[in-house]
Specification:
Subcellular location: Periplasm
Largest sheet: 5 strands, mixed
Order of helices and strands: HEHHEHEHEEEHEHEHEHEHHHHHHH
Keywords: Signal
Strand content: 15-25%
Protein name: SsuA/THI5-like domain-containing protein
Strand order of the largest sheet: 2-1-3-10-4
Number of domains: 2
Number of strands: 10
CATH architecture of the largest domain: 3-Layer(aba) Sandwich
Family: Belongs to the bacterial solute-binding protein SsuA/TauA family.
Helix content: 40-55%
Shape: globular
């Protein structure tokens, strides 16, 4: 082998090596994950598709590192969003209306719906074999935070069934959201509104009995949606698109699997609750169509939300659907 050939071969080998290393480095760069901070308003089986997306690695497959924290309240979730403490919030759509009507220059936009009915159940301290809504009259009702979705939908359902919550009940609304279950367990109230799995846990422990579902009574409403500030969505369009696609995959997975399978997958997020209890709670939600099967928030649901807010005296002013709802990411997720 001539020295010239050896030199040419060495140069060629070095070039191939450099190209190979560059390709590996380029591949590593493209595989880098993007961090997204998500604040959920509460921890509940109500949000099962979200935990499926995390547990099944749907976010990871999209190149996202989703860091989830629970903020315990709509006001706290919105504060985190507006202050830059989180990137995406999972919270009731009513909060976006409150922020917008207060004149925010950086409105919060709903881009993916997760739940489409109320997620609370009416719990009675005493067992009632044949419940009627009229049995609530003159009772002590432990309600949710004034102006929040649980309380507004609760009032809507009560009025629909002939109960004026401010005249026919001894309404208790001065207890912090996170402490409502403990307050009821300690003896406050004859009835309470609770999410799952807390409702089923109370029933199992004999602390209360599920007598009605607000979700069945309320009809479709954008109860909980993913939202972000307008500025974040404009500067992170790719991330929001990937996030929505992962949520849609999870929604489809939940729709296609039974409650026991879902319970096993999300159990790491509810370690203190056994899988049978989780499956029972999930079954309740699936049977009443609580989990949205796609992330599109439609105009009819948006208008129903504002009707409920108006009925509760909490709607500052009517807000056009297109002002605070962006379905382009959801539509793309379904198309993809």
């Amino acid at each position: 082998m001539s020295s010239t050939f050896k030199m040419s071969f060495s140069i060629l080998f070095a070039a191939v090596l450099i190209i190979g290393l560059s390709a590996c480095q380029s591949n590593e760069t493209t595989q880098k994950t993007e961090k997204i901070r998500v604040a959920e308003v509460t921890r509940s089986v109500f949000y099962a598709p979200q935990y499926v997306a995390l547990a099944k690695g749907f976010f990871k497959k999209e190149g996202l590192d989703v860091q989830l924290k629970t903020t315990w309240g709509g006001d706290k979730t919105m504060t985190a969003l507006l202050s830059g403490g989180t990137d995406i919030g999972l919270v009731g759509s009513e909060t976006s209306i409150y922020v917008y009507t207060r004149g925010s220059k950086n409105p919060v936009i709903n881009f993916a719906q997760l739940t489409q009915t109320d997620g609370t159940f009416l719990i009675s301290r005493k067992k009632i074999d044949h419940f009627t809504w009229s049995q609530l009259k003159d009772s002590r009702f432990l309600g949710q935070r004034k102006g929040g979705m649980p309380q507004m939908v609760g009032e809507y359902v009560l009025k629909k069934n002939g109960i004026d919550p401010h005249k026919d009940l001894h309404l208790i609304q001065n207890i912090d959201y996170a402490n409502i279950p403990n307050a009821f367990a300690s003896g406050t109230g004859d009835f309470v509104q609770l999410f799952e799995p807390q409702a089923s846990i109370f029933e199992k422990e004999g602390k209360g009995y599920i007598v009605a579902s607000f979700g069945k009574e309320s009809g479709h409403v954008p109860y909980t949606s993913y939202m972000a500030t307008k500025s974040y969505m404009e500067s992170h369009q790719s991330a929001v698109s990937k996030f929505t696609r992962a949520i849609y995959q999870a929604q489809q997975w939940v729709a296609d699997h039974n409650s026991k399978e879902i319970a096993q997958v999300i159990h790491p997020y509810f370690k203190d609750t056994d899988t049978d209890m989780l499956a029972k709670a999930i079954d309740r939600y699936k049977n009443q169509g609580t989990y949205a099967t796609d992330p599109i928030l439609d105009p009819k649901e948006w208008n129903h939300l504002q009707s409920i807010m108006k009925e509760a005296g909490e709607l500052p002013k009517q807000v056009d659907y297109k002002t605070l709802v962006n379905t382009s990411f959801a539509e793309k997720a379904i198309k993809d």
